[in-house]
Amino acid sequence: MLSAILDAPIGTVVPAPSLLAGKWLSDGPAAERVGPYTRAVVSRARVAERADVRLAAEYAKAGARTVARLAPATRATVLERAAVLAADRRDEFARLLALELGKPVKDGRGELDRVADTLHVCAAEARRIGGDLLPVAGWARGVGNTALTYRAPAGVALAITPFNAPANLLAHKLGASFAAGNSTVVKAPPQAPAVSAALVALLLEAGAPEESVQLLHGGGDVGAALCAAPEVAVISFTGSAETGAAVARAAGAKRLVLELGGNAATIVCEDADLAEAARVCARTGYTNSGQSCISVQRVYVARECFDTFVDLLTKEVAALRVGDPLDPGTDVGSMVDERAAARVLNWATEAAGGGARITVGGTRDGATLAPTVVAGPRADADVVTREVFGALVAVLPYDSFESVLRTCNTSRFGLQAGLFTRDLERILTAWRELEVGGLVVNGSSNFRLDHVPFGGVKDSGFGRESPRCMVEDYTVIKTLLVRGLSIWGDQ
């Protein structure tokens, strides 16, 4: 199935079958994905029906024991093979990402490099799973007893993935779940069904048993039904704050890892290298057309440097190459659809009507929004207060470091922030005071290492996504208490 998806000739409709109870299924109700750049049908997904959800949940529950019985070394070997396959097929995956999402192929190749790294890290975490000898003899009632723990698979994990990085974010969820010894049900994003199917097929081709993963396509109704399924023990969801709340309501008393929206701020202090800061913000503010929860959205610049920085950023952004995502030289491709591009352009226009300046961009062609810089918007403008999730960066001046920290914290989101400064005191103060899950120093908000804990606070969710943290979320601690037996003796 992996070759059938990845090797489909350009110009043909790529299949995105579902994987249910060990069988790839193409027959049944279908949804077509129109490529945002090509404006033609690029893939066709087999949409799940109500009976499919029930079958998937029951099959996953029955198959969980098979996966749990695999030795951690066996799971690690499968994941390492999958990592090698991902690296070998990076160009084909990148082409499919370009077709389904308008993501430039060079960004798609970068995403597959991260997929390979993520799967290697998941393999390493599978090898680390173990337990503890607890110090029960340190308390009087524990003398003469022994207590041990180990991490057992949770059972059935549900992975609900977004469109913006469908390969890497699925690798995080599926890779960590398999490393932990769970069976996994994947609910794919409607915008990237073929990419999702290809990654699932890749894991199976690497040697994962058929009981380890199932794949369903569909909309929010499918996701809600899966969340409510009693067979599901843990849910990992990446998406908007509003949908995350709906996931939590549908899930009830289940373990949740929610990586939700963002409104990322980057602070540029007066001691920063302004040219380097502008270059980094331009490069990371428009990657994937700004469709990242940690994409540079709000840049706060010390007032005495504001005009200089705006000029530098504008020149850097104007130099970005916009166009065909299949062209290796393209920096910025299309947004996910025309509605998304129109929304972001409308927010930019409204900001300009409130006194801001659009220094570059401010136009669109279908789903392709020209990279846009909005300088000096009002503090209550949508481009400042809401999650843009598009090819737009807003730049605002600030008067003191203390005030800019307070301003950044007014957002209801708190995922990640960036800071350009050489002042160690400011770095430590920002790390302590900013209400975010992570701070990147001398870099923008849009930087992530896949093996480092990642996640937010406030409306950006809870839990942390990295293989180590996710393995902990996907496992449960089981305790063994043996009375009358102790290495410390009875006294």
Describe the structure.
The chain is an alpha/beta fold. It is built from 16 helices and 25 strands. It has a seven-stranded mixed beta sheet with strand order 15-18-19-14-13-21-22, with helices on both faces. The protein has a six-stranded mixed beta sheet with strand order 10-9-8-11-12-24, with helices on both faces. A three-stranded mixed beta sheet has the order 1-5-4. Helix 4 packs across helix 5, helix 5 runs parallel beside helix 6 (166-180) and helix 8 packs parallel to helix 9. The longest helix is centred in the N-terminal third of the chain and has 24 residues, at 105-128. It is globular and about 75 Å long. The model has no long low-confidence stretch (mean pLDDT 96).
User: In what range is the share of β-strand residues?
Assistant: 15-25%
Total helical segments: 16
Class based on secondary structure composition and strand pairing = alpha/beta
For the CA atoms, what is the radius of gyration? 24 Å
| Mean residue pLDDT | 96
Q: Distance between termini?
A: 63 Å
**Helix percentage:** 25-40%
Query: What coarse outline follows from CA principal-axis ratios?
Result: globular
Low-pLDDT regions: none
| Biggest sheet layout | 7 strands, mixed
Please list the strands of the largest sheet in the order they lie side by side: 15-18-19-14-13-21-22
| Structure summary, number of beta strands | 25
